[in-house]
Amino acid sequence: MDVFKVLSDKQRRDILVLLKNGPKNAGEIAYQMGLTPAALSYHLKQLKAADLITENKQKNFVYYKINTAVFDELISWTKQFVQPSAHLG
């Protein structure tokens, strides 16, 4: 799945912002985002397909967290487009 396509959706970006503070289960995410279980399931599926989040099962809950390795890769890739600032002197 194309990472940029997945990130183009504001709700998915908002889910990632929510997860930056640590893992959350689907119920916590749905409540804080005001999403129905079906809508949340769709967004989580897209985020998992792009490898932007991972899931970890603990007892009766599945916790989702950000896959920082993908973000590190994205940051490295985008750095090629940043021009070093010219120093006036």
Short description:
It contains five helices and three strands. With about 90 residues, the protein is an alpha+beta fold. It has a single domain (about 5-80), classed as Winged helix-like DNA-binding domain superfamily/Winged helix DNA-binding domain (Arc Repressor Mutant, subunit A).
Describe the structure.
Helices cover 53% and strands 16% of the residues. The chain is an alpha+beta fold and 89 residues long. It has a single domain, classed as Arc Repressor Mutant, subunit A (Orthogonal Bundle), CATH 1.10.10. The chain starts with a helix and ends in an 11-residue tail after the last helix.
**Low-confidence runs (pLDDT<50, min 5 residues)?**
none
In what order do the strands lie side by side in the largest sheet?
1-3-2
* Total count of helical runs of at least 4 residues: 5
The total count of strands amounts to 3
CATH topology: Arc Repressor Mutant, subunit A
Gyration radius, rounded: 16 Å
Q: Structurally, how many domains make up the residues?
A: 1
Biggest sheet descriptor: 3 strands, antiparallel
Helix content: 40-55%
CATH architecture: Orthogonal Bundle
- In sequence order, what are the helices and strands, one letter per element? HHEHHEEH
CATH class: Mainly Alpha
Distance between the termini: 46 Å
Q: Based on helices, strands and strand pairing, what is the structural class? A: alpha+beta
| Strand residue percentage | 15-25%
Give the CA-based shape. elongated
The averaged pLDDT comes out at 91
Name the CATH superfamily assignment.
Winged helix-like DNA-binding domain superfamily/Winged helix DNA-binding domain
